């Protein structure tokens, strides 16, 4: 196998997500006990304020769950989704057509580390459960910062392994054992073992905050969700 083929087949690659695209939404609902919907609502809160005609970028859009939710919540805005998985985008395109949102939600196959957009093109940008799959996270954050206009927000929602609190041991058991077991059972594959490993390897909240600051974001805020099972990070573009 060539180096390029190995990269395309690697854990976290677009091809890996192609293989679970049709089951992805259903598995997320089950594996998160439905908490992901509430987390996404908090993400959308942090994109405000928005005005008519604004455009929002949804990085690692996958099957366009977040992009569609943004379009429904803010009927005055346009949404651009970017993802490296053609299989995930295919599912997303079907959902867009079913919801009659083809005029407001557009999906593009692309790399978060080298986005095909102009500087200051968007009123805000977000990435949900995807930054851990970007090989160079700092570069991905720099690109998000570059394409958002001054005053706009870059919002990151990411899973994490709870470290403290009475419920932390149960949450860690869920991440380390339940997620890969149910994911493999439901998908017929081992991709969700990668999910568990990628969550464990993700930086601590303060370290990731520093990474966002290194990317040029200011006033970075951390919000702990569901006993630390996820964190929401919001940074402001100032120049």
What tags apply to this protein structure?
alpha/beta; 10 helices; disordered N terminus; 239 residues
Describe this structure in words.
The chain has helices spanning about 5-10, 15-20, 25-30, 35-45, 65-75, 85-100, 135-145, 170-185, 190-200, 205-215, and strands spanning about 55-60, 80-85, 105-110, 120-130, 150-160, 220-225, 230-235. The protein is α/β, with parallel strands linked by helices. The protein has one domain (about 5-160, about 205-235): Vaccinia Virus protein VP39 (Rossmann fold), CATH 3.40.50. Strands 3-2-1-4-5-7-6 form a 7-stranded mixed beta sheet, sandwiched between helices. Helix 8 runs antiparallel to helix 9. Mean pLDDT is about 80; it is low at about 1-15.
* Structural class computed from helices and strand pairing: alpha/beta
Question: Helical amount among residues, as a percent range?
Answer: 40-55%
Could you name the CATH homologous superfamily? Vaccinia Virus protein VP39
Biggest sheet, open or closed, and with what strands and sense? 7 strands, mixed
What is the CATH domain class?
Alpha Beta
The total count of strands amounts to 7
Corresponding CATH architecture: 3-Layer(aba) Sandwich
Outline: globular
Instruction: Give the total of domains.
Output: 1
Residue ranges: pLDDT <50 for 5 or more in a row?
A: 1-14
CATH fold label = Rossmann fold
With helices defined by DSSP (H or I, 4 residues minimum), what is the helix count?
10
> What sequence of helices (H) and strands (E) makes up the elements?
HHHHEHEHEEHEHHHEE
Query: Termini distance?
Result: 44 Å
Rg over CA atoms, rounded to whole Å, is: 17 Å
How much of the sequence lies in strands comes to: 15-25%
Q: What strand line-up does the widest sheet have?
A: 3-2-1-4-5-7-6
Mean pLDDT: 82
